[in-house]
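[recover] target loaded
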């Protein structure tokens, strides 16, 4: 559910090529923006970890390794909440499969096993889910929305 213009108190957008220095700059910018919201330090640290995972995933999966692709981030502060929307140029993925497994007791165990076997394990999705109040993929999965309450 988008933040309406009436609800929005602040919007910052940044668009960058998915290179390691740019990813670090985006993370620093997000930390600075989130710091200005007054969110509790522990909650902000977890939310930033989720954001970092989202942009790292976007960089990793947006292309087949040949060239850097663009990542767009929208940072919004609305009435009582903070939202990051991360969009990449990749083909997306079957996000419904991974998000449907997040409530299973064994999601963490399965994710670790898959990662150990060299497959996509879903640990990042689990991390984002645990550190957000709401996590939603849009469209084909190349856009993710992370929300966290300011209270």
């Amino acid at each position: 559910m988008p933040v309406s213009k009436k609800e929005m108190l602040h919007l910052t957008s940044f668009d960058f090529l998915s290179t390691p220095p740019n990813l670090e700059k985006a993370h620093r910018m997000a930390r600075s923006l989130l710091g200005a919201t007054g969110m509790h330090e522990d909650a902000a640290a977890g939310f930033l970890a989720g954001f970092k995972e989202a942009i790292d995933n976007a960089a990793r999966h947006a292309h087949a390794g040949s060239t850097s692709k663009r990542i767009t981030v929208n940072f919004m502060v609305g009435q009582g909440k903070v939202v990051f929307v991360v969009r990449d140029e990749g083909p997306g993925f079957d996000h419904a499969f991974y998000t449907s497994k997040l409530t299973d007791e064994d999601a963490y165990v399965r994710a670790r096993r898959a990662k150990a076997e060299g497959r996509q394990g879903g640990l990042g999705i689990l991390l984002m889910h645990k550190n957000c109040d709401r996590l939603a993929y849009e469209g084909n999965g190349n856009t993710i929305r992370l929300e966290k309450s300011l209270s």
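[recover] notes: The radius of gyration is 15 Å.
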